[in-house]
Amino acid sequence: MIRKCDDRDFETIYEIVNEAAEVYKGIIPADRWKEPYMPRDELRHEIDADVHFWGYEEEGKLLGVMGIQDVLDVTLIRHAYVRTAEQKKGVGGKLLSHLRTLTSRPILLGTWADASWAVRFYEKHGFRLVTPEEKDRLLKKYWSIPERQIETSVVLVEESWSDES
Ligand SMILES: CC(C)(COP(=O)(O)OP(=O)(O)OC[C@H]1O[C@@H](n2cnc3c(N)ncnc32)[C@H](O)[C@@H]1OP(=O)(O)O)[C@@H](O)C(=O)NCCC(=O)NCCS
Asked: Which of 42, 74, 121, 155 sits at a 20 to 30 Å CA gap from 100?
């Protein structure tokens, strides 16, 4: 079952994000890794900035979460994390498909350039990488992230996205 998360899910979202993010350790640039990867105050900040988390639940337990955030004229998919033991079983795909039904705006998403599995996951779902120049422009326009994270990230867009948008 896919459902919207609320404040009661805060600790579980925190746990899932930080468990799944362990995979970044040693893969993303060392200066971008921290433990926990997403501290509670950062997660709270994201929720306060209107990142709405949705969760995939089975037998009353959340197995994965994914956030959606409207920014200016687009929708961003933010913070996609599935419990380590539940990855590669379709949970992320179902969450992504569900979130896509919630907006009629163009969808953009960003991830670490080194997270090749995440790029493949999104490509499998019809997203494509934009050029480095377009990536810089989009990350500056739609995300609030430090310059160093811009350098080390990629952006994917839906096939229908036009770079002149
Ligand atoms: C990326 C993620 C959200 C995808 O969710 P998921 O439930 O594992 O994905 P699905 O089962 O729906 O789709 C599986 C596809 O994703 C990709 N994929 C996901 N995890 C992978 C891994 N560990 N290794 C290789 N490919 C992987 C593959 O393309 C795979 O397709 P395949 O099984 O045909 O090879 C999840 O794996 C995750 O939490 N990863 C760690 C954190 C992360 O990278 N988050 C992305 C942040 S933007």
From this structure: 42
Q: Decide: helix, strand or coil at residue 164.
A: coil
Q: How far is CA 41 from the centre of its chain?
A: 18
pTM above 0.85, yes or no: yes
Output the CA 29–ligand 1 centroid distance in Å.
20
pLDDT over threshold 80, residue 92: yes
The span from the CA of 125 to the CA of 127, in Å, is 6
Q: Is the CB of 150 under 6 A from ligand 1?
A: no
Ligand 1: which of 121, 139, 149, 152 to mutate, judged by most atoms within 8 Å of the beta carbon?
121
